[in-house]
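Supplementary notes for students who missed Thursday's class. We covered one full example, reproduced here. Read the sequence, then the structure, then the short commentary at the end.
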Amino acid sequence: MSLPRIAIDAMGGDEGVRTMIEGAALARRRHDRFKFLLVGDETRIKAALETHPGMSGASEILHCDDVVAGDELPSRALRRAKTTSMGLAVDAVKRGEAGAAVSAGNTGALMAMSKLALRTMPGLDRPALAALLPTLGENDVIMLDLGANRDCDARNLVQFAIMGAAYSRIVTGRERPRVRLLNIGTEETKGTEDIQAAADALRAADNLAMDFAGYVEADKINRGECDVVVCDGFSGNIALKAIEGAARFVTDLLRQAFTSSIRSKVGFLVSRPATELLKHHLDPNNHNGAVFLGLNGVVVKSHGSANAKGVANAVEVAARLLEDDITNRIANDLCKIDTQGFNGK
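Structure (token representation):
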């Protein structure tokens, strides 16, 4: 099956052109139907392509030497959307020259440019940033919003649940993903008025392709007991960074423990298979590729520090969303919730 090509912001991320091209090349070795529009400095892109000869016939270069800085204000970056590699990658999706865009650059700038160029889908108030997180279960959990919207009302949370469930059906294969709202407790009386109103609406919307399972507390996100966790962007971003920090803490603690003495080093050799499995499970590159859901087009945000494997995973996320037509899936479910007469208030 042929796919629309994927626009790669080759200049974004901590490692820049070399890692972005290497990641795209790795994705193509796994899936030879992938084709790319590589946006960035042509000289540097061509130099990176020399070590990946299989990419030349599958790629076109769009020259651009203007880059959005990692600490640049979104409002300032937005004014240069037509001259930066990030802006031109997103604009290629708008013009139909690419089916999706992938960038490892400034998250705020990418969201601003994507919203302006692609616009929010009809029936949706706001797009949301969604990502896959590892769990103890068989499938990863999707969490949204992770920072695109600081304040959210009940209507926003219900729409996020619809988008997250549509995404989950693609990545997990579950016909009815288990959806929960992030809260400070699991009792129905816990949480803000907006969280409670969103829960009431989701319980009533029995024609949606999801199983709404009430609330989940932050310490249960990674237990594998649900497929989608819904929250406002402020809470979601804090929870995500806490989870990432805990993962780094565990790996650093193990590293210190296993190097503290000769006996510890021997213990490390004995337990190495288990520690390697833990390392693989906690490696963010294995879950890389956050998605801006709710736009009229596919945009995937790769982590700024992602290595080539992480970039390849982000590219594969974009391709899978194109294959499974995430936009139409969300649109169809939005029509169903509208029939419930929910107004989010």
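Commentary. The chain has two domains: 1-118, 122-295+309-345. The chain is about 45% helix and 15% strand. If anything here is unclear, bring it to office hours.
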